[in-house]
Amino acid sequence: MLFKSKYLLPVLAGAMLLQSCGDKNKSDEFYTTADGLAYKVYEQKDGEYVNRGEIAADDTTGARLGQVITMHMSYRTANDSVLFDSRQQGQPVMLPVMEPTFKGSLENALTMMRAGDSGVFKISVDSLFANTFNQPMPPFVKPGTHFTFFLKAEKVQSEQDAIADQQKMYEEQMLAQQERAKEQIKIDDAKIQEYIKEKGLKNVQKTDAGVYYVITEPGKGPKAKAGDNVSVHYKLSFLDGKELESSYDNPMSGGQPFSFPLGQGQVIPGWDDGIAQLNKGSKAILLIPSPLAYGEQARGEQMPANSILRFDVELVDIKN
């Protein structure tokens, strides 16, 4: 992701999750810039990381203003509690090199980094929260201490090239997700067929996309078209029978049916697909494989990733 540095502070409620690890060579000294930034920067030589030593104030080999660094980054408190680690997120971050927000800032640190370099930087928490994170210091952070940033620069490039790389990475991730979805829908389809057999469901139909549906009470009205506003009552459950929610007793809606524009991507794909098969007034069972529901995205502890969903629905109204 392409971030501005001031947006890097994560949700801090779970900040104490990870504990410190890694090399702590006491003899490996920190250097300090005139602006008060303590640092150690390493370069690769003959397959090993070597401390670059003191970096001159007029050194121009590092990243320049306007460029973007793709890097892995972690930072931790003075007592070594890890607050953020991009490797735990599964991908590097992209940081634009901007004007420093204060002396001895993260922006200063970025200008010391070259592609392939690794660096360790100590930055004042008081200045970070006041000038970069722009929010009050949380209780577990002690004023007057520092955060230690660990950076591993993979690329230094122009903003245009970084955006192109980001788009390529997004497309690759989407293709990989689609391939996983193809395999998952096969797994889910087999489970749904077993469920249909186990429950003795009759007159089961299947859409081209893969949603199974049973019309339990035919309606006499028309079918909705894409763009029509439909009102639907529903009960949501898992295949094991556990009910998750119902529009009939939803206090937020006062028990009113749920309304949405059909075929506009404002609901899960399985709903757009399944509701389109029904006439106004119909009642039906929709059995939706996880890639057409919430897919790999868990919805809290109540709904794990790759959950197959059953909806008992009633198409109450259609408005053009």
Gist of the model:
With 320 residues, this protein is α+β, with helices and mostly antiparallel strands. The protein has five helices and 16 strands.
Notes on the protein architecture:
The structure is a single chain. With 320 residues, the chain is α+β, with helices and mostly antiparallel strands. The chain folds into two domains: 5-164, Chitinase A, domain 3, CATH 3.10.50.40; 201-319, Roll (Chitinase A, domain 3). It has five helices and 16 strands. Strand 3 and strand 4 (48-51) form a beta hairpin. It is elongated and about 80 Å long.
Biggest sheet record: 9 strands, antiparallel
Task: Please bin the fraction of helical residues.
Answer: 10-25%
State the CATH class of the largest domain.
Alpha Beta
Overall tally of structural domains: 2
Number of strands: 16
Number of helices: 5
Low-confidence parts lasting 5 or more residues at pLDDT below 50?
1-27
- The structural class is alpha+beta
Order of helices and strands: EEEEEEHEHEHEHEEEEEHEE
CATH architecture of the largest domain: Roll
Shape: elongated
Q: Any idea of the CATH topology of the largest domain?
A: Chitinase A, domain 3
Radius of gyration: 27 Å
